[in-house]
Every structure is written in C-alpha cells, then in structure tokens.
Amino acid sequence: MVRKIIHCDADCFYAAVEIRDNPQLAGLPIAIGGTSGRGVVATCSYEARAFGVRSAMPVSEALRLCPHLELLSTDMPRYQAVSKQLMNILREFTHLVEPLSLDEAYLDVSGSEHYQGSATLMARAIRERVRQELGITVSAGVAPNKFLAKVASDWNKPDGLCVVAPEDVADFVTDLPVEKLVGVGPRTAERLHELGIQTCEQLREWSEMALRERFGRHGARLFSMARGEDDRPVAISRPRKSISVETTYNRNLETLAQCQSALEGLVADLHRRMGRKGIDGTGATAMEKLFVKLRFADFETHTRESLWRQPQLPGTGDFLPLLETLYGDVPRPVRLLGLGVRFPVASGRGAGYQLSLF
Amino acid sequence: MKIRISRESLLEPLQPIAGVVEKKQTMPVLSNVLMAVDDDALTLTGTNMEVELVATLTDLEVSQTGRVTVPARKLVDICRSLPEAADVTLALEGDRMKISAGASQFTLATLPADHFPNVEDDEDSFTLNLEQREFHSLLSSTAFAMAQQDVRYYLNGLLLEIGDDNMRAVATDGHRLAMGNLPTPTYLDTPRQIIVPRKGVQELIRLLDDSEDPVALTIGSSHIRATLGAYTFTSKLIEGRFPDYNRVIPQGGDKTVIADRETLKSILQRAGILSHENIRGVRLELEPGQLHVYANNPDQEQAEDTMSVAYDGEPLQIGFNVGYLIDVMNVIREDQVRIVLSGSNASALIESTGTDDNLYVVMPMRL
C-alpha cells in the first residue's frame, strides 16, 4: 500500500516564537542562543541568515557577521509550551505522530479520513491552523515516505508546502543532490563526489553491493534513497537514546583542576534532569554508557565514552577518568564541557535486553 | 653506532615491536624504537608504558656500538619497502640515523636513548616454564571474553590464577565468561592471582606460536614477563580485585543439549544475518531432538533454521546475543558441544564434550 507521510517543520521556531510575542522584532535580524557572547546560536531569523548567521555558530562570530544582530537568550519553557500545542494540533489529524524535536514531526496519515483522505489538504489545514492558533508558520512536505517528505518540507521553506505524488517520485529524485539525502553529511558527500556522484541519478548507476562495500550498511540506505525508497515506519514513541548536559563557560577553563571542579556542577545538573524524568538506572532505565565531551578554545571537540551498566546513577568520580583522558597531559583552554549517559538501543520494553552475570 | 644487517633479520622483530608502539603518543619518544648495540648484538625495544617488547638480534656485523631511538613506524616502512635480502647499513651520524641499502639512502631523526623509559624490575617474582603452544591455547581460548573499556577496569584484562599444579585463565565482560585451565606443576605454596591488561594479552597471543618451544613466565607484584626465543615481553598488571567467578558458574542446570559444533555455528551465523545489527538477539527454541533458531530485525526481516540435537528435556525458549554464542563455537576444538540450561533467564553453561575442562558461561537476553 502506498503510504501518505507528512513532515512538518516550523520555520526558525525559537525566533518565530520570540517575534510572535514581541512584534517589534519582526523584520530584524535576531538570533536566539547563549547571550554571554560565548554561547552558540540556537536559531536565527531569516533576516539574520541573510548576513550568513547560522545555527550552531558561535555568538561572537554571528556578531561579527551582523553587528546589529538582536540577541535573545533561550526561553525553553516557553518554546516547550508552544511545541506541545503544535503537537496537539498534529495529533488531531492522526495518532501516528513521530516528533523529531520540539518543532519537527512526521505524520503517517495513510489511514486518516479527514479531507477525504487527501494528505495534501491535510497538510494545508495543518499549516493554516498552526498559523491561526499559534501565530507561527510551518513548512510541510507530503510524500509516500519519510525521507521524501523531509526533503519536500525543506523544498519551499519558509512557509511552504511541497507535495511529491507517488507518480512524481522518480522525477523528484533524479536531480536531487546527494547532500539532501538523510545521513549524508559533508564527509559522505565528499566521498560520493570523489566517485563522481553529485545527484541521485548518478547514484542510481551504482549497485547495492558496490555501495555497501564503500559505505557499509549506510550504502544500502543510499541505494534505496536514490530510488526514492524508504520503508522506515513512523514510530510513535522513540526510545530515549541519551540524556546529557553541557555548558559553554563565560571564561575558558584553563587547567584540568578547573575542569574537574566544573564537572562536579554538571554531574549535579545531570542528576537533577534524570531525577525529573524518573531515571534511576534500574529496570527499564538501565544505562549503557557514560560520555564526556570537551571543546577546546580552538573549537576542537572530542568525546569519550565508557561502559556503565550499574543500576545506579554515575557520580563525579565515574566521569573524572574520561575527562582526564580527554584533557591529556598538555594544558589547553577549554570552552565547553558536557557529559551524559547513553541508554542501550533496545531498552524500554525489556525485550532484547542483555542480562548480566553480576 | 654502526651496524650491517640483512633486511629480513631486522624486519622480523621490528614488526611486532612496531605493533606495541602506539600511533597516538603523548611523549614523542614513545613512538620511537630504542636501538642498543653492544659488541655482538642489537637490542630493539618498543613500549607504550603499559607493555614493552624487547628483541635481541645477533645475526649482524657491528662496526661501532651505541644507543639511540628512531621513529618505529618509519623504520618498519623503510625496511619493508627494501628489496628482499637487501644488505642494510645503519649508522648514527651526529643526531641523525643514516640507513643505506644498495642505492637507497635514508636519514632519520633520532631522540637520545636516555629519554627512553624502562620498566623497572620487580622483586618477589617467580618463574614458570611452559610450552608456547599450551600457553597460547590457554590465552586464545579465553581472551575473547575480556571487556573493552569497561569502567570496571579490572574486567579489561585476563585473570591468571596460578595454583600449585594448575594455571587458570578467566575473562568476563559481565555478560559472558570464559575459563580455561592448564595443568602444570608450579610448586607455588600460596596461589597467586594477577590480571594482565587487554593489550598485554593480545600482544602475547601474537608472539606465541603453536610450537613446543619454551616460554618462561616471570610473574612479579606489578609485572608479568614472558621470555621466548629472541623476545622479552613485559606487561604491567592491572591492580584490582577480579570478581568471584565461581559464583557465576551455573550449577545444577537440568536441561542438557549435545550438538554438533560446526552445524550449530553455521545455523547461528545464518540466522545472525537478520538479527538486529546492534543487539544481535536470536531466539533459540528447544524441543526433544531439535533446536530451532529464529532471528528478526526492525525491518521485519526474518530468519529461521533448525538442526537435530541430542535433547530430551522440556521445550524451552531462550534468547541470546548470537555473537556471544559464535565466539564460544570458535574457540571450542572438539566436534561436539554440551550446553546446560535451566531456564529462559538463567545463564547457559557451554563446554566441549572432550577432555579439556575449559568452560563458557553466557547470560541470555530477555525475549
């Protein structure tokens, strides 16, 4: 059966919420992120993007590109509230909603009877209702699978709708640059380019075997996506993969000792977050790994992990060895420190959970 | 320092030594190999501070003695690239090492030999003499179950327990356990337990061969040293208490399966193809005379296979990480294996049906 998938993605979500609540900001280049001058941009308005400001860019660099940038600090509780309203609207169309983040979700409307089952009309209705009820815009993509729907929602962004009907899939994919494929980042793109592959049409000339040899299991995905195929189901609940905290410090941490004492505060934050979510490391919340992330002043970033299969929350002493290995012997200024835990891939339902000897 | 040596004599010991030297080094001298020449021998040493490998070569012509360190990787690559049976001359000139063979000339940077760390000797050590093949077999049949980068650091190694007439090796990562035994008189009054780190075990396995040639093990309070042929290998020991392994060896399982090892391995490998890539779970279903193996993955792909086994107990379903079972099938040498089970949530005991008393314990996965 041909499926009908909608991918909805709010346009510069945090910025849109800020502008909605303070209309004087409309039309100005604004960015939301750490305001200390050392944080990074979380989201920015299209006016700011015109200056070259991008998500994940250090605020200092954003200010250099756009000196009159209006900088706002993140107000998570407010965004979360709007996100909840957004998801509630989506769930009125189908219960098969897979949120990807606060402002992004897949919907499987194959079985939905609204609008005579027309996914296109449903996507229009979603966009209209979000605009009226929430005062922000969402872009939507409609397609027979998740991958195409996601590419489509980006096609006419912002405030756009793009429909890829089943009969148009082949044409839609032909000229699609490989960079648009899910899971193709700069590195994979570069390797594809080296093989003379720029578009999906060129990618289709490669056999699945040849792609598997070069790209491992991702090769099989590339093979399917080049043909516009993706049979991943829309999953209502996705198991939590990790939980983490991180901080960019106002002033660089100059020594290992400073990092060590900063780590203590982070561990306390992590415990608070885990406590709120009812994670105590036992039963279904059993953990798999610990990790520490370190970003040096030159933006070189490293993470290191170790196994953690004990039925209790890890303490500062458990993270310290990872920090020490990451930091190395040569003192270097550190701008960001993060840490967290990862959960086993199949936890949640208990099935597929590896039991321990001791 | 100046010597003449054949490419092969130099290359053979250099390769395992370069294996000990790690690429990412915090101290530059640790990516170097120490060359020490005395009147009639060349001694090569590589270390990563955890393990050290020394080779002594006598098949050479010494013109001048001396000591210096040179980049290990580059020296190996140069030797490897030279034509077979090339006659190689190495000469220290100032702080440079000149290497020449035929028309090929190389000049390598050096670091002074006195920067090179050396492993201090332990007092209170004792020595055991074994055949290489026995020790190799003991290590290689158990090492696969060692943990990797576990926070329980004492699991990232192999336990060697030396009693008065037996040496036992135990490895576990918390999910499965391997235990091997090597009967040998040690004349040791009080049993000793040591934990050899992962890297040390792997290098030892690489150095030992399948021969009856001797290996002498010197075990001290913080190091183990193996002397075999031209090599002396030293590894630090992991300090810490290994968990009480006897506690997790299951007793009194009432469901015994005897299966042909090769057949079982094949059906596990086949079914494993369609198990979840990360979790690798397979479901085993036992009924009298038959074992069924099932696997499926999130893409709803399925595999199913069946073999005849000797089993007359009650039907049982149990899940396992297929990789853990295959690892065991790979190290058992006999044609038949015995699997003793008691229930779906209890560990399985796997042994060969032959004479060796190695045993393996694997915890199941929840179905």
From TrEMBL, chain A:
Q: Does the keyword Ligase apply?
A: no
Report the principal subcellular site: cytoplasm
Record-marked site positions (Substrate discrimination): Y14
CDD domains per record = PolY_Pol_IV_kappa
Which Pfam families does the record associate with it?
IMS, IMS_C, IMS_HHH_1
Enumerate the spans annotated as UmuC domain.
Answer: 5-185
What cofactor does its activity depend on? Answer: Mg(2+)
PROSITE patterns noted in UniProt = UMUC
What are the protein's UniProt keywords? Cytoplasm, DNA damage, DNA repair, DNA replication, DNA-binding, DNA-directed DNA polymerase, Magnesium, Metal-binding, Mutator protein, Nucleotidyltransferase, Transferase
Active site positions: E104
Instruction: Please tell me one Gene Ontology term that the record gives under cellular component.
Output: cytosol
Checking InterPro entries in the record gives:
DNA/RNA_pol_sf (IPR043502), DNA_pol_Y-fam_lit_finger_sf (IPR036775), DNA_pol_Y-fam_little_finger (IPR017961), DNA_polymerase-Y (IPR050116), DNApol_IV (IPR022880), IMS_HHH_1 (IPR053848), Rev_trsase/Diguanyl_cyclase (IPR043128), UmuC (IPR001126)
Gene Ontology biological process: DNA repair; DNA-templated DNA replication; error-prone translesion synthesis; SOS response
Name its cellular compartments: Cytoplasm
**Uppermost EC category:** transferase
Residues involved in Mg(2+) binding:
D9, D103
SUPFAM superfamilies per the UniProt record, alphabetical? DNA/RNA polymerases, Lesion bypass DNA polymerase (Y-family), little finger domain
Q: Which reaction does it catalyse?
A: DNA(n) + a 2'-deoxyribonucleoside 5'-triphosphate = DNA(n+1) + diphosphate
Can you quote the record's cofactor note? Binds 2 magnesium ions per subunit.
Q: How does it assemble?
A: Monomer.
Function, as annotated: Poorly processive, error-prone DNA polymerase involved in untargeted mutagenesis. Copies undamaged DNA at stalled replication forks, which arise in vivo from mismatched or misaligned primer ends. These misaligned primers can be extended by PolIV. Exhibits no 3'-5' exonuclease (proofreading) activity. May be involved in translesional synthesis, in conjunction with the beta clamp from PolIII.
Entry-linked NCBIfam families: PRK02406.1 (NF002677)
Stated family: Belongs to the DNA polymerase type-Y family.
What's this protein's name?
DNA polymerase IV
Q: Which organism is it from?
A: Halospina denitrificans
Automatic annotation (TrEMBL), chain B:
Q: Known CDD domains for this protein?
A: beta_clamp
Superkingdom of origin: Bacteria
User: What Gene3D superfamilies does the database record attribute to this sequence?
Assistant: 3.70.10.10, DNA Polymerase III, subunit A, domain 2
InterPro entries noted in UniProt: DNA_clamp_sf, DNA_polIII_beta, DNA_polIII_beta_C, DNA_polIII_beta_cen, DNA_polIII_beta_N
Q: What are the DNA polymerase III beta sliding clamp N-terminal domain coordinates in residue numbering?
A: 1-119
Domain DNA polymerase III beta sliding clamp central positions:
130-244
| GO molecular function (one) | DNA-directed DNA polymerase activity
Q: Which UniProt keywords apply?
A: Cytoplasm, DNA replication, DNA-binding, DNA-directed DNA polymerase, Nucleotidyltransferase, Transferase
- Which residue range or ranges hold the DNA polymerase III beta sliding clamp C-terminal domain? 247-366
Name a single GO biological process.
DNA strand elongation involved in DNA replication
SUPFAM superfamilies in the cross-refs: DNA clamp (SSF55979)
Localization recorded for this chain is: Cytoplasm
Which is a Gene Ontology cellular component entry for this protein? cytoplasm
Q: What is its main location?
A: cytoplasm
Quote the SMART domains the UniProt record gives: POL3Bc
| Quaternary context | Forms a ring-shaped head-to-tail homodimer around DNA.
The entry's family comment says: Belongs to the beta sliding clamp family.
Q: What does this protein do?
A: Confers DNA tethering and processivity to DNA polymerases and other proteins. Acts as a clamp, forming a ring around DNA (a reaction catalyzed by the clamp-loading complex) which diffuses in an ATP-independent manner freely and bidirectionally along dsDNA. Initially characterized for its ability to contact the catalytic subunit of DNA polymerase III (Pol III), a complex, multichain enzyme responsible for most of the replicative synthesis in bacteria; Pol III exhibits 3'-5' exonuclease proofreading activity.
Protein name, UniProt field: Beta sliding clamp
The species is Halospina denitrificans
